[in-house]
Amino acid sequence: MLFSIILPTYNRAKMLPVAIESVLLQEYTNWELIIVDDGSTDNTKQVVQQYNDNRIKYIWQENQERSAARNNGINKASGNYICFLDSDDYLLSNHLAEFYSCIEQNGEKFAIYFCNTMCEYKGEISEVKQTYINTRNSIEFAFANTIGVPRVCIPTRYMLKHNFNPLISIGEDKDLWIRIASELNFIHNNKYTTVYKEHDNRSVSLSNTRSFIDTYHLLKQLRNKNSKHISSRIANKTISTALFNIAKSYIYLHMNGKAAEYILRSIFKCPFMKVNIHRVLLILSLWGGYKKQILNEYREA
Predict the structure, then answer these.
(1) 32 with 3: CB under 8 angstroms?
(2) Which domain holds residue 87?
(3) Which of 39, 43, 147, 198 has the greatest number of C-beta atoms within 10 Å?
(4) What is this structure's pTM?
(5) Same domain, 148 and 21
(6) Are 35 and 72 within 8 A, CB to CB?
(7) In a domain, 202, yes or no
(8) Are 117 and 249 in the same domain?
(9) How many CB atoms lie within 10 A of CB 222?
(10) In the prediction, which pLDDT does 283 show?
C-alpha cells in the first residue's frame, strides 16, 4: 500500500459522498481511505456503508475533535505515505497520481510534499493563487506559509513520530509542519489537485473572527519556540499578515472600528512592507464600503 488517505468527519453525512467518490475516482489506485467518524450523531456510518470497496475503512470514536481523529487514522494506516481529506472538500482525479510522479521524480526522497489547491464558491471553481515567502530553512518556510492539511503528502513514519497536537484547534497543521520540518524539507508539487469549499461553517472563515485571533496567538507561540530558526523579518511579516486577517474578518462583520485598530496594528508590526500603502488606503475607505473586495482578496489569499 502506497497511500493512506485520512478523512475525519463529524456530522457531515450530506457532504461526505462527494469526498469519498473523489477518492474512488483516483487515477492511481494503490490507496486506502480511512474514514474516522468523530462521534457523529447523524447517519454517517450508513453513508459510508453504501460504498462496497475493501479499500475503505470506517472507524468510530467518541467525539475528540479533528486532531485526535486524524491521529487515530494515522495509527491505523498501512500506507507508506499519509494524505488527508476533509469531509467538506474533495480531490481531483489526478491527486494521487501527481504525488506519485513527484515522489518518483525526487528519487523517493523523504520530504513534506505539497500541492496547490482550488476553491469552490457558489458552484464556481477557481485556482487559489499563492506566492510563497522565500525563507532560510524548512522551519521558517512552515512558519511563514500556509499549507492546508489536504495539500500534503508525508511519509507515514514521520506522521507516527510527531502527530497532531489535540490541544490546538486552529493552526494545528502549522504546528505539526514546523515540528516535522526539523527533519524534512518541503518539495512543491505545483499541480492543482485539491478543492476546498468556501462556506461560513468552515473552521476558518471570515465570519469566525475567533479563528483568526487564535491563529495570531499561535504564531506568537510558535515564533518563541523556534526563535533560533525564524528570523525577526519573517516573524514580523507573518504576524503582521495575521493581524491584517483579523481586520478583514471585522470588515466582513461591519465592525469598522475594530477593523481599523487591527489594520494599524498590522502596519506597526512590520512598517516597511509595500502593502502598508494599501492598508492605509483601506482604513480611509472603510466607511465607504469595502466588503466585496475584502471577500475577493480573502478567497485569493
Answers:
(1) yes
(2) 3-197
(3) 147
(4) 0.90
(5) yes
(6) no
(7) no
(8) no
(9) 21
(10) 87
